Amino acid sequence: MQGYVNTVIYRDVAERHDIPNSQALKFTMQMVFNNPARKLSVRKIVDSLNSQQITANREVVSDYLDWLADAYLLHKVELRTDSAAKRRVNPGKFYLNDVGIVRAMRIKHALDQGPLLENLVYLQLRRLGFQMEYVLTPDGSEVDFIAFHPMQNDYKLMQVCFDMSDRTTFEREVTALRDAADALDVKDRYIVTWDNEETLPGDIQVVPAWKFLLNRV
After folding, report:
1. Which pLDDT band, with edges at 50, 70 and 90, does 109 fall under?
2. Which residue has the higher pLDDT, 147 or 110?
3. Cβ–Cβ < 8 Å for 24, 56
4. Engineering a disulfide at 81: which of 20, 56, 86, 115 sits with its beta carbon 3.0 to 4.6 angstroms away?
5. What pTM was computed for the model?
6. 82 in any annotated domain
7. Would you call 183 helix, strand, or coil by DSSP?
8. Domain that holds residue 40
9. Residue 124 pLDDT > 90, yes or no?
10. For residue 65, what is the enclosing H or E element?
11. How many domains does the chain have?
């Protein structure tokens, strides 16, 4: 995995785009490795680069992220909004093209299972032909995916929660999903977990990851 990633960074990005010093590029990629399935702004990456005495600006980092996406190493999910200004100021969420890359390339070996499961769900939705954005409710809560299938003209709202045994987590995820579904008028509402399965009020289907990955929902 490390060899594959290094090949992509040097051959498909650094050499192709004639980047003389790949230090900033590698640091940008490392920021994504350490924040999978989490909002990550270009400004935050630039600030981290500058704190390490690595010169970069927002335009350069934006180009790096676009080129890494063009090389199919990562994918970006943006905020669901009709406002170009809101989309521009709200950070994107980044997903790796293989969950194994996260474990192979992270500086910190420990990682919550939640982001890995969310990355896996993203990849499955992508394989099934869905286009994805994330949703912010009026109170600032987040729904991981609104997924649209252009061939089926079908929308799904989806939360990913590895473990719903914590009551606070449970209430937060369910409330955000219900609020987003009501606001966007989406009927298909899912929470993908590691092994929970039930139907909640409001037609919310809680499904285990294995069933979702076998496309049985």
Report:
1. low
2. 147
3. yes
4. 86
5. 0.91
6. no
7. helix
8. 1-77+87-109
9. yes
10. helix 58-70
11. 2
